[in-house]
Amino acid sequence: MRFTAFGALWLAALTACTGMSSHSAYGAGDPALAAANPGGGTIVPFLTSGDAVLQALDAIAGRAGKPLRVTSISADRMNGLMVNVQQPAHHQNVDRYVVTADGALNGPTPVKLMSLDGGPITAEKVDARAFDPKSVGFVNLTRTARQAIAKSGYPDARVTEWDIEGIAPDDRRFIYLESARARPSAEVNVQLTIVRMSY
């Protein structure tokens, strides 16, 4: 009895030390919706799980500070979730944070901003681009991924990446898919409702 209890305790400690786990704190990626990592790694949960995205945004806010305002947010099957965050204390500065498929949070890494009008980067210019990432309908991400696959006409299509550059009507918001025969994409609105499909 004593040996069994010790053995179970040793196994639990070994599992904790070696990180033997089937998925990260953000859950496992869904192979029925998300594309596999081409390097053979873990499927990125942020590709199709809005809950994972929202949880990761909370972790980033814990490191970056509040209010959390971003200039872009995206996910891909190799890097994970990538978020360009406006510094709360210095609005002209933007830092990149990356949450990998295994749950590691990296950042801040300074982002070099470029002005479209050739002038200096100011707090006002970054304020005009920055938005609250929780105003995006990430709760709908799983449903939208399913709809995009169905609307693509390719049952083997899987989400490879998505990119949200803002919440204004003309800002870019796309979900990209890949199948054996095509690379369809879905343009979405702020609530992640599909506006149109492209092939």
Structure commentary:
The chain has an 8-stranded antiparallel sheet. Residues 1-22 have low confidence and may be disordered. A hairpin with a 6-residue loop joins strand 6 (173-178) and strand 7. It is 26% helix and 25% strand. It has 4 helices and 8 strands, in the order ααββββααββββ. The chain has helices at 2-18, 50-64, 123-129, 141-152; strands spanning 69-76, 80-86, 94-99, 105-110, 158-164, 173-178, 185-188, 194-198. The chain is an alpha+beta fold and 199 residues long. The chain has one domain.
> What is the helical fraction, as a range of percent?
25-40%
Low-confidence stretches: 1-22
Estimated radius of gyration: 19 Å
Large-scale geometry: globular
Strand order of the largest sheet: 4-3-2-1-5-6-7-8
Strand portion: 15-25%
In round numbers, the mean pLDDT is 89
According to DSSP, the number of beta strands is 8
Multimerization state: single chain
Distance between the termini: 63 Å
Largest beta-sheet details? 8 strands, antiparallel
Please indicate the count of domains.
1
Report the total helices.
Answer: 4
What is the H-and-E element order?
A: HHEEEEHHEEEE
Look at the helices and sheets and give the structural class.
Answer: alpha+beta
Essential attributes:
alpha+beta; 8 strands; disordered N terminus; eight-stranded antiparallel beta sheet
Topology:
Blueprint: H1 2-18, H2 50-64, E1 69-76, E2 80-86, E3 94-99, E4 105-110, H3 123-129, H4 141-152, E5 158-164, E6 173-178, E7 185-188, E8 194-198
Antiparallel strand pairs: 1-2, 1-5, 2-3, 3-4, 5-6, 6-7, 7-8
